[in-house]
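Changelog note: in this version the structure field was regenerated for every chain. One regenerated record is shown below for reference.
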Amino acid sequence: MRDYSLNLREGQRFQFLLKANPIKTIKDEKGRKNSKGEIKKCRVPLIKEEEQQRWLMRHLEGIAVLEEMQVSPCVPLYFRKGRQAGKVVPVRFEGVVRVIDPSAFKGLVTKGIGPAKALGCGMLSLA
């Protein structure tokens, strides 16, 4: 793998593409408990476009400003973890972003944004 040096400056603008899994965490509706006796938490997808946009803005808060953004749905991904089946509902974000905190922004590029990275979500691509 080739090492890529990413030199970022405050105010720098990029076109971006991000396939992500915008979710929120809620308490289990059935009141099931985990091994610690606490009510389990479940991840549920954010379906409304406004919620998805707010999800991305929260992840970029203090790091970058969205100048333009379009959101489009992607095909759902199904997976199995042990005996448990699951579904991820990814969306595609694209637009223009302006960097506020270069160091933190580089962290987003290298570590990704949000869950389901093993299923191809979270990679922030820049142009």
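Spot check on this record: The CA atoms of residues 45 and 115 lie 11 Å apart. The chain is about 15% helix and 40% strand.
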